[in-house]
Design brief:
With 369 residues, this protein is α+β, with helices and mostly antiparallel strands. The chain folds into two domains: 102 residues, Phosphorylase Kinase, domain 1 (2-Layer Sandwich); 237 residues, Alpha-Beta Complex (Aminoglycoside 3'-phosphotransferase, Chain: A, domain 2). The protein is built from 13 helices and ten strands. β8 and β9 form a beta hairpin. The longest helix has 22 residues. Bound molecules: adenosine-5'-diphosphate (ADP), 2-acetamido-2-deoxy-1-O-phosphono-alpha-D-glucopyranose and magnesium ion.
């Protein structure tokens, strides 16, 4: 048995899955945590699956605080969903504690592991294959924000400090550029100039927050299409997952991150930039659906700022990919050389497209005010 297999044995033994484990395999396409699907098989032949995750040590310095947030949020969501007649087992994540009763298991090498039941009969999409699918994700994320409207925000830990602090992301990029640890900056000159030409943009949403124009809410902060599980039967958004970054934040960022990832027809790391284009009609589809799901919780100012949420989340994500590339790809999982730079380039292409369609985007959001 190699080291990874020995570690997996240790971790599997730390949890009670209710039946013998028959296998654990790598799963999903997340960029942050190490995710596995665990299969169990009991004597009555009923096979069950679980999601087992080693939380990213690079992203999350305090797994104890992270899991305190997740326990609080999943319990709250479960109650809200039940009180609306929904199924808490299918529509919310549920933490399965290890045998020692803690919220997660710390392995002998210091890794932090958690388990959720696998939400069955769902599909996790990587691209918005149809407008209906994208609309369903919009309703789910809008509704998620609505469900958490009354959550006591002051009890949440900041799991990643300055997560959507675009000014801070810019400062970190500049620092990485100055150090240029791997001498990659020369190769990224065009991308760096793209950022430097838009420095002022980094303050737009934060200034609106400081000025009291935009309210602080409890938000998801990572609203990619693949962070909502779609019901296989109905095609509707069923369960919002990846709750690691639920923190006080801006509603426009939840909207914007979905647009960044979903309102186009290409992979996040597409090399051929001619294939990376903002789909304005998908922007409209998502706007309508997100606001429908949010059910009147957004203010008029928040709706006005939605195009800024889209542009800033896309710009910020590009800045983060570029920073990670300059620092040697230590944060986002990569499967090939240059992937983070390619990801950065797709984001900046989308930002340029948003700028080119800016008036149209502003007109669209006005329609749904
Ligand atoms: P990351 O932060 O790395 O993106 P996620 O929590 O999003 O990690 O999980 C990675 C992937 O695992 C998801 O995109 C989804 O495909 C799958 N997944 C996570 N939790 C569940 C679950 N409870 N049921 C089914 N699939 C899940
Ligand atoms: C990460 O965890 P995942 O893969 O859903 C990242 C997001 C980025 C996204 C880019 C905790 O999302 O912020 O927007 O990659 N999550 C974290 O694809 O950093
Ligand atoms: Mg994810």
């Amino acid at each position: 048995m190699n080291q990874a297999e020995t570690m997996m044995q240790e971790v599997l033994a730390a949890f009670d899955f209710g039946a013998p484990v028959v296998g654990a395999l790598r799963f999903g396409q997340g960029h942050i945590n190490d995710t596995f699907v665990v299969h169990t098989q009991s004597e009555d032949a009923c096979c069950r699956r679980f999601i087992l995750q080693r939380m990213s040590a690079a992203a999350f310095k305090r797994p104890d605080q992270l899991m305190e947030n997740i326990l609080g949020v999943t319990e709250y969501l479960g109650r809200e969903i039940e009180s609306r007649g929904g199924s808490r087992e299918r529509e919310a994540l549920r933490v399965i504690r290890p045998r020692n009763g803690e919220p997660y298991y710390t392995d002998s090498a210091g890794g932090a592991w958690r388990v959720y039941p696998f939400v069955e009969d769902t599909i996790c999409y990587q691209t918005a294959e149809t407008p209906e699918l994208f609309a369903a994700s919009g309703r789910a994320f809008g509704h998620f924000q609505r469900l958490l409207q009354g959550y006591p925000a002051q009890t949440l830990h900041e799991t990643i400090p300055h997560f959507h602090d675009t000014e801070d992301r810019l400062a970190k990029l500049k620092a990485a550029m100055a150090v240029d640890k791997l001498s990659r900056a020369a190769e990224c000159r065009q991308e760096l100039d793209f950022v430097l030409a838009r420095e002022a943009d980094c303050s737009v949403a934060l200034q609106a927050l400081r000025d009291g124009i935009l309210p602080l809410r409890v938000t998801h902060n990572d609203t990619k299409l693949n962070n909502v599980l779609m019901d296989r039967e109905t095609g509707e958004g069923l369960c919002v997952i990846d709750l690691d970054t639920v923190m006080p934040g801006l509603s426009i960022n939840d909207f914007g991150d979905s647009i960044r990832f979903g309102a186009n027809h290409s992979a996040e790391d597409e090399k051929d930039l001619s294939r990376v284009n903002l789909d304005v009609s998908l922007f409209e589809t998502y706007t309508q659906a997100f606001l429908e799901g949010a059910g009147g919780t957004l203010t008029a100012a928040e709706i006005d700022y939605l195009p800024w949420g889209a542009k800033l989340m896309t710009f910020e994500c590009g800045i983060r990919f570029l920073t990670d590339y300059l620092e040697g790809d230590t944060y986002f999982h990569t499967t090939r050389a240059g992937q983070n730079l390619d990801r950065c380039r797709t984001q900046f292409k989308l930002v340029s497209d948003m700028e080119a369609h800016w008036d149209e985007l502003a007109e669209i959001v006005k329609k749904y005010k």
